[in-house]
Design brief:
2 copies of one chain form a homodimer. Chain A has a 7-stranded mixed β-sheet with strand order 21-18-17-22-23-27-26. In chain A, α3 packs parallel to α5 and α3 packs antiparallel against α6. Chain A starts with a helix and ends with a strand. Chain A has 3 domains: 194 residues, Four Helix Bundle (Hemerythrin (Met), subunit A); 193 residues, paralog of FGE (formylglycine-generating enzyme) (Alpha-Beta Complex), CATH 3.90.1580.10; 239 residues, Rossmann fold (3-Layer(aba) Sandwich), CATH 3.40.50. With 718 residues, the first copy, chain A, is an alpha+beta fold. The interface between A and B is large, with 43 and 43 residues. β27 of chain A pairs antiparallel with β27 of chain B, so a sheet runs across the interface.
Chain lengths: 718, 718
Amino acid sequence: MPGSFKEIKYKMKENMIVRVSKTPLLNGDAVDAKREELRQYFHQTYSLYEALFEPITSDEAYFIRPEPLRHPLIFYFGHTATFFVNKLVLGKYIDERLNRSLESMFAIGVDEMSWDDLNQANYDWPSVQTTRAYRHKVRGIVDEVISSMPLTLPITQDQPAWVILMGIEHERIHLETSSVIIRMLSLDYLKPHPLWEPCRISAAAPKNTLLPVAGGCVTLGRGDNADTYGWDNEYGSKTVEVDSFHASQYLVSNEEFLAFVEAGGYQQLRLWSEEGASWLNYTKASIPHFWVKRNGKYFQRNLLDEIELPLNWPVEVNYLEANAFCHWKAEQTGRFIRLPTEAEWMQLRNMIDTDQPYWDEAPGNLNLEYFASSCPVDHFETNGFYDITGNVWQWTESPIDGYPGFEVHPLYDDFSAPTFDGKHNIFTGGSWISTGNEALKFSRYAFRRHFFQHAGFRYIEATTKEVPVEPVNTYETDDLVVQYLEFHYGDSYFGVANYPVACIETLLAKLPAINTDKALDLGCSVGRASFELAKTFSHVDAIDFSARFIQHGHQLQETGQSRFSIPTEGELVAFKETSLEQLGYTKEGKERIHFAQGDAHNLKPQFSGYDLIFCGNLIDRLHDPKRFLNEVHSRMNSGSYLVLTSPYTWLEDYTDKSNWLGGVKVNGENFSTLDGLKETLSQRFEFIEALDVPFVIRETARKFQHSVAQMSLWKLKD
Amino acid sequence: MPGSFKEIKYKMKENMIVRVSKTPLLNGDAVDAKREELRQYFHQTYSLYEALFEPITSDEAYFIRPEPLRHPLIFYFGHTATFFVNKLVLGKYIDERLNRSLESMFAIGVDEMSWDDLNQANYDWPSVQTTRAYRHKVRGIVDEVISSMPLTLPITQDQPAWVILMGIEHERIHLETSSVIIRMLSLDYLKPHPLWEPCRISAAAPKNTLLPVAGGCVTLGRGDNADTYGWDNEYGSKTVEVDSFHASQYLVSNEEFLAFVEAGGYQQLRLWSEEGASWLNYTKASIPHFWVKRNGKYFQRNLLDEIELPLNWPVEVNYLEANAFCHWKAEQTGRFIRLPTEAEWMQLRNMIDTDQPYWDEAPGNLNLEYFASSCPVDHFETNGFYDITGNVWQWTESPIDGYPGFEVHPLYDDFSAPTFDGKHNIFTGGSWISTGNEALKFSRYAFRRHFFQHAGFRYIEATTKEVPVEPVNTYETDDLVVQYLEFHYGDSYFGVANYPVACIETLLAKLPAINTDKALDLGCSVGRASFELAKTFSHVDAIDFSARFIQHGHQLQETGQSRFSIPTEGELVAFKETSLEQLGYTKEGKERIHFAQGDAHNLKPQFSGYDLIFCGNLIDRLHDPKRFLNEVHSRMNSGSYLVLTSPYTWLEDYTDKSNWLGGVKVNGENFSTLDGLKETLSQRFEFIEALDVPFVIRETARKFQHSVAQMSLWKLKD
């Protein structure tokens, strides 16, 4: 029925006033109907995005830069179309680009979702007319792909339909972020528009009070089999124990925030975090970004108009301002006032028992179902709380991070991963213009803490000073550390078994009678052998000279996971994650390990009494291996074992040649490292056996170090 | 019968005057008899060596250094005993050393056979008495080993008996070299000795004349299955075409050489090679080393006495002096006078139809069968020539080199290999004190050209100026070049097939219809792919940017072989050799290859008209790969193919990031090198296929680079 692109287009124009849509369900029985639903959702999104630009009265406005940290609007106008082309080309769903030069300009911009360093290059932007014509062509291409693509239900991440949804939801993100940029554009360039009618009600704000919220277990994440499109960061699941707390009944209103402003909040640096003070110093801000102060009177800039400061609307600030306000409020009240965490917000959100796309009416000023602006903070109530979702986004204390099991989508591998850096905080709940995926309960978006969006906050009162926020599992990128993380926790290559695991399994098989009280993993690197030893030994000390290696073992022990990006080809990387659970390590086991930084040549006295000392690839990296071998017995129990592995790669960078154990001519004859080990250890140790253990260290997708270590086993003589 | 060491020792004393022995045959029927023959040969050698020191009248003499480039005699006295211990320990035929400290001092010295840089360290030498006691203990140990070792016939290189023979023959070498040092010791420390009776005859020298020697094919080398012990450098075989020449009837006598001295030969630098002039300048020599000029009269120092210059004895000089003499003689006569090559000497030697151990009487002043000194040059005649073997060693023009198939013995891997450096010249024929292996026809010894031994020379007259000496196959030691030689010509590791061969075989299988007139191997490195291509293509150009790589391909083409030492562990190396013949390449094939140094970015115009251009692991090492790919078609025939392989290891050291073909983000998206190849080549080439080809580059015995290259095949569009 809804045949050609032309017909669809016509229908969309008719329906232009229909701002509201729901993100499609992935499942269903009827493929044809789903195909048309996708087509409808695509065109509605595409048209709605174009409609956002309709209030602009002059093409000139597309080329100025109202927000210096952003490209001009022309980029965003073209960008959402180019995104479809890029992902379809990357997925090999279309063969050719439309316009290499335009697509190059519209491809990377300043994607608020992932980074915010502005490229200062001069762009030779195309005209609005050219860009509009380009958008038109892309609309036709995407429509054709929707018509011709294979489709089975449910839609899975490997289908072209997923890429279509990705493009649509990406455009819906830009619907919101472009609206923020337009909100910064001079009103001289804008006219009112029937589609973008703001709320026209305002009054004094209600008095905000703190209401109790019961604690409990909160499960975050949409799980792995959700029924709607989701971004990579939403998948997986994480259960968090939330203490009881109090939360403010309302979002903080302009009026409530005004008290902070008038109390000199922007001038009192003690209220600001270090980052906040630095931002304040740089911007010289003294009132919220969308406020205007003229002749002693406050106004607020909205999308297409400026009005007297609506006192009962939510204030819109960045995280740093919200955080300073909380500090001030805490000072005023003597209480632990702060922003909620993601989990605390979810505890509130769980009071609402519906979600888009299932609702009939949005439970808040959300999904463009009510206003094209904020509205008073006392309009949408649930259990005595208002605006649990909608109106403006709500900043949280939580830096964004993936849930356990996080995986990137191969066609958009930098959507989230670069934001797992501890510098991007989550906000929740959506704003009046959050639609599609953005309007879902499990949607998660994060920005740098100084960024402005349609975002404000609710504060809570906690029972303790400490903010229950875990450190972010940032992606390790240090080349050497990453090689070792992959070496210890990553994939096998060339059929060679995981080396730390193989070493421990081999040595335990060779030493069945070993006492299993206490082991030392000396030169533990990122720690895999220690986790393996902790399956058998009651206590494992894991020591390495390098803190940058150890911290990953320690982090795995603390958080259960570790993330790293491994080079594939040139500058390209793949994002990897490991978790102890997936590797089969128990909580009980990991707690037997004690990570510590230390020097094999100079260990503290408490590191002794071992039944096993395992030195994996250590001895050829010591500066005085002979001294170490001559002293190590003093840390060992009677009848205990020393196990050494090494490929004997002696290098003067690490060990003066005069200190090499072997691999040298001694009195003119070849003298191997094993000869040297025997010579050095034979007085105190009985040599049991030497055998080969291969290992592979990945450098890139196509380049590996493939080595064969020699393991030697030694029993301490009585 | 000859039971205990004591009995044997007693017997040896009785037989002390028996200086003569023969090196044992390796084969035989009776194991017990062979064991006793070995025991006898050992004790005879050991006692004979000790007897060499008997003329010394004062222990003091053991600790002075008559030859500053050598250790004092005490070292040599202990060294030959320690050598037995070292090799038996290394071969694990005995478990423990006798005396670690003595053996450390006696182990490496200044082994004239392999190097001659003097260690200037101060040694705390043991006393003669201590050393003699040590020698005595070693004699007992070796005797025990001979009694208890397993023995089968024939004796092969992997048997302990081989190590016993190695120690014996080593001691026989030092019998000679120590006699040279004693010859430099002041006569104050020496007394006559019945065992070391010199020749007492001398007179005017006979007039030397040049006699014709017919040319022909000469086969050098003892082959692989000789019946006596041989050093590594004697094995294998090499056939050389020798032109007819004339050779001097006699060795050059003192009288003949005196004419050169008196003609101012030592003062006329034009007669000397560059090396000779440099030596002359350093030593200020004006007469032969063992001559003494006193009050205008010449004398000669022999082992234990000084006599009036015996005019008809052979002059003893180093190679540099012999060479200068020949230049002088050539000037005098206007003829091509020079030293013989090894092959030319062998052509003479072939006139004698016997060899030790088969002869009844030595065919020259050799094997201690006659004098403990030189004797007149006209004493031992064969076919009109005198002293073809014996009297003094005869310097040749040939720097020592292994024959094709050369392999080191694992227990003495540096006996010869370090002398294959172009700086050690062979001398032949043996001297009066050359015994055991030294007295054999196929023995080959070489020294630095400035060294003195009991050595002189015969000169020859050639028909052309050119000296028919091949460049030495020195052992390549450059780490990177060696890695590539092993990569191209060495062993397989981890079951991964030889990479250049696999590449060529794969591409030919994929391109069965290819025209096979002309191929280019661009980035040929050390050339294996070119030899492989030459099996199929009529003409192969092999080009690399690096001359140090290419020279090895070229050398293989020229000489058929290449040698290199690969690191095993630490500073230890293994000696490797490759030969085209062993690899199955024909003379016809290799002559189709033209090696040239060249830059892929700037090839000379003649490099064009190709049916195939193969670039193995090249593109990620070019500084501007795109430019290369955009130009390469101009060198290709219609319907020809371009084949690229690479692991795409882009590094800014080689290629500016802006020039990487891929492995980068392009417009925000991952852009692989294959994407980049397609983008760059698609206008002119049809993409056929891409497939993986693994390869392994060995770094040490336990460390390898294991990579997976992508091969892509492209057909030039018409």
